[in-house]
Amino acid sequence: MDQQTHQHLQGGVVSPSAQFWEGFARGVPIMIASAPFGLLFGALAIDNGFTLSETVLMSAAVYGGASQMVGIELFGQNIPAWLIIFSIFAVNFRHVLYSAAVGRRIGHFRPLQSLLSFFVLTDPQFAETERRAEAGRQITFAWYIGVAAPIYVMWVVEAWIGALFGNLISDPHALGIDMLLPIYFLGLVMGFRKRNHWAPVVAASAIVSIAAYTFIGSPWHVGIGALAGILTAVILAKPDDRPEVE
Amino acid sequence: MSDTFWIIVAGAVLTFLTRIGGHLVLSRFERVHPRVEVALNAVPAAVLTTLVAPAAANADWRGLLALAIAGLVSLRFNALTMFVAGAAVIIVLRQIS
Questions:
Q1: What residue numbers bound the domain in which B55 lies?
Q2: pLDDT tens digits for A113-151?
Q3: Of A62, A102, A202, which is closest to B49 when you measure between CB atoms?
Q4: With an 8 Å Cβ cutoff, are A237 and B38 in contact?
Q5: pLDDT tens-digit series, residues A176-202
Q6: Which residues of chain B are within 8 Å of residue A49 when distances are taken between CB atoms?
Q7: pTM, 2 dp
Q8: Is residue B36 part of a domain?
Q9: In chain B, how many domains are there?
């Protein structure tokens, strides 16, 4: 069945605009939770010598909080350009896994829709998409972009606001900024707790990522820890709990 | 254009490649092996955990308490409530002690 027919069959039930707003409603809480980081990025970027336009450009073009933070932190020290670029790449490398996993859900998008969808494939975007697919619901482009739109637009605006008013944040530590990201990601992890082998996967990823963080260093702990969790799932998988494949 | 501009552009291009690369590689195969399917289904928990665990291991007691309370809240409430609860705990604890 081609995409057009498919949309028609589904279209009678929920219109694309209704799907967009349904996605939008999922995007707004993510937008609120990511606001502190968007603002903080803007403030820190100016501190580290970025101009206003460079700050806004980075949020608009990279659109990945952790890697942007690493990028500007290294920028503030006297580090060669290629190493800064490589660090951004290393921090974002986990998206290769998101991309492979989410590609199964959005394979029916048109080419331009796909390009745009992969461009905005952040951690929460991935988590939302996986959870909707897990609930057996179809991932449409309208829904997907509905999730992304408020997060992306505000992310860029926050860089700008943070850059203009960043000096108002006097003490990020007192505001618990260092813990907000882990708390946020814990929420995403908890959202998947009904999946097969969730507890052993989380335990393996946690132990191995802490060990890798301690003995090898950041950002390698992400890839190494993730690999340990994925291997655990593969080892524990029995033939009968394989999801059906076409 | 400044050096910074080119660093940002290069970082953005590489980031986009990570976001589309996994799909490009996987879509070359006609069928997804069941083991690969199991592996992909483990991706969310496996990757996202690595963004929490080292921070928890290196957090002060205030941070740990905030994470623990947020974790409990997430058992009953949605992600935003959980985030706000955790953020409130860490901010209050850092202010008073």
A1: 44-97
A2: 999 999 999 999 999 999 999 999 999 999 999 999 999
A3: A202
A4: yes
A5: 888 888 998 899 899 999 988 999 999
A6: 4
A7: 0.81
A8: no
A9: 1
